[in-house]
Design a protein that fits this description.
The chain is α+β, with helices and mostly antiparallel strands. 53% of the residues lie in helices and 20% in strands. The protein is built from 13 helices and 12 strands. Strands 6, 7, 8, 9, 10, 11 and 12 form a 7-stranded mixed β-sheet that branches. Strands 2-1-5-4-3 form a 5-stranded antiparallel β-sheet, sandwiched between helices. The N and C termini lie far apart (130 Å). It catalyses: ATP + protein L-histidine = ADP + protein N-phospho-L-histidine. It is found in: Cell membrane. Keywords: Kinase, Membrane, Phosphoprotein, Transferase, Transmembrane, Transmembrane helix, Two-component regulatory system. This is Sensor-like histidine kinase SenX3.
């Protein structure tokens, strides 16, 4: 009885110190804390479950698939086992297919290294495409982690860029070497003239040799400029109908004196009235180079024939000689810059080694090709094959000529205006 009375007194005492609003606020605070804790616990659970699902998922994100579809380079997404899950359109060139493993050992090693380190890696390597063992390609490969399980691999083929860089370096080196010869000869001959100033006969001899070296230097630089223009992306833009009769006639007339001096007869034959689309001056230079080579390598008293043949949609211009011919090993390289099948003869006749290279590039820029047939001691035949067009109507040709004259007049007027002259 005493204890019950004491408990009631204590409860009454506490009740007297806390009001009802305070008790309500305390309960609200405790409930809010419990709610926040439960919410955070649920959020963390969902977050952990999503992370586990991401780490264990092998599904390629849709965004990655869209990026692969728009890429020009070869690219793919692989899983930890090396299985290809998605590819770009260009990946097939390297034998990369969806559902197959990555067959190229170098690329597999790159993917493995990225998975181990977790950092993106770029390497330049030379790889062999599956099934094409004789065609190694230089590529720049980049691998990046795409989530916890997937790896994105991008392969860019830089073989053609490497080849062009090598061609450019060779061209510069060969040009420098070829220019040194006539420039050095002119310098030495000038010193010889100075030392032989009291001997008029020697001065005349040295002066004639200087003129010959200067002509050779001018021919070399001119052909280098022609070749550079042919190789430039915007080197030829004004194509129009060209009569091959005029091209052949102009080429033969330009080398008539050379043929007479060498005792070689020029003969023309074949079809007439054929037209192609192109640049007449470039075609004249190309056919002229073939005629000049045929004359140089033909013996005195022989013939050089120039013929035109219409073959359906194409046109063939053949230049044949009865000269020394070309060996099979040299036929593989005669269209290279500065290459000479007969080095001593080319030097003696002033050849630059650029004539056939100009023929090849001029023909390619006109959508055609150049072929060669040759047998040692029996002669050679070079054939330019070009797409043929129908003969244009006379009024069309006149209209094009008027447009060309108008463009030339406009260019000349603009040049005078830039120089401050009165237009």
């Amino acid at each position: 009885m005493v204890r019950k009375l004491a408990g009631r007194e204590v409860n009454a005492l506490y009740a007297g110190h806390m009001t009802s609003p305070q008790i309500a606020l305390l309960a609200l605070a405790i409930g809010l804390a419990i709610g926040i804790g439960l919410a955070m616990l649920v959020f963390w659970a969902y977050r952990a479950r999503a992370k586990v699902a991401e780490e264990s998922s092998a599904v390629v994100p849709q965004g990655a698939v869209d990026v692969l579809d728009s890429m020009d380079d070869a690219a793919c997404v692989v899983d930890p086992s090396g299985l290809v899950l998605a590819i770009s359109h260009a990946a097939a060139r390297f034998g990369i297919e969806v559902g197959a493993t990555l067959d190229v050992p170098e690329l597999r090693e790159l993917v493995r290294a990225v998975r181990s380190s977790g950092a993106s890696t770029t390497e330049t390597m030379r790889i062999t495409r599956p099934g094409v063992s004789l065609d190694p390609r230089l590529v720049s490969a980049r691998a990046s982690a795409l989530g916890a399980r997937l790896t994105l691999l991008i392969v860019r083929d830089v073989t053609e860029q490497e080849r062009l860089d090598q061609v450019r370096r060779d061209f510069v080196a060969n040009t420098s070497h070829e220019l040194k010869t006539p420039v050095g000869a002119v310098s030495l001959l000038a010193e010889a003239i100075e030392s032989a100033a009291d001997d008029p006969a020697q001065v005349r001899i040295f002066a004639a040799r200087i003129s010959a070296e200067a002509a050779r230097l001018g021919q070399l630089t001119g052909r280098i400029m022609s070749l550079s223009r042919l190789q430039a992306a915007d080197g030829i833009t004004d194509f129009g109908p060209v009569a091959m009769d005029e091209v052949v006639t102009a080429s033969i007339e330009a080398h008539a004196v050379q043929a007479d001096s060498a005792g070689v007869e020029l003969i023309r034959g074949g079809d007439r009235g054929a037209f192609v689309r192109g640049d007449a001056q470039i075609l004249i230079e190309a056919v002229g180079n073939l005629i000049a080579n045929a004359i140089v390598y033909s013996p005195r008293g022989s013939r050089v024939g120039v013929g035109v043949k219409i073959e359906g949609e194409t046109l063939e211009v053949a230049v044949s000689d009865q000269g020394i011919g070309i060996s099979e090993s040299d036929r593989e390289r005669i269209f290279e810059r500065f290459y000479r099948a007969d080095e001593a003869r080319s030097r003696r006749t002033g050849g630059t080694g650029l004539g056939l290279s100009i023929v090849k590039h001029a023909t390619q820029r006109h959508g055609g090709e150049v072929r060669v047939w040759s047998r040692p001691s029996r002669g050679s035949t070079f054939t330019i094959v070009l797409p043929r067009i129908e003969a244009p109507a006379p009024e069309t040709t006149d209209r094009k000529n008027k447009k060309k004259r108008a463009r030339k007049t406009a260019k000349a007027a603009a040049a005078r205006a830039r120089n401050g002259e009165t237009v």
